[in-house]
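Blinded run. Sample ID left blank on purpose so nobody reads anything into the name before looking at the predicted structure. Input follows.
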Amino acid sequence: MKKTIKGVLIVIISFALIYSIFVGIDAIRLKNKTEFTPPFFSNCTAWVEEDVAEIKTCNGLGYTVKYSYNNNGNLNGSEFRLFNKILIWAWIS
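Blinded prediction complete.
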């Protein structure tokens, strides 16, 4: 029984470590971009118009990236949220 529990824990910890590395690499890659870049394995929604800006939302594997544009179509800012709740980083120009 102890070998089974140890094996399951190793598998769970390995998946968590690989997922953390994947999200970390994608977060750094997206933070360094100054234009729209979809995340790896993403599902991007259509443009959503709000008061003065347009927002494009892309969902990755457990995280969301939102890009905000002004009326001229220039990138105004972006944010990266883990599980669509926890803000990891955001920037506004």
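Unblinding after everyone has recorded impressions. The helical segments are 2-31.
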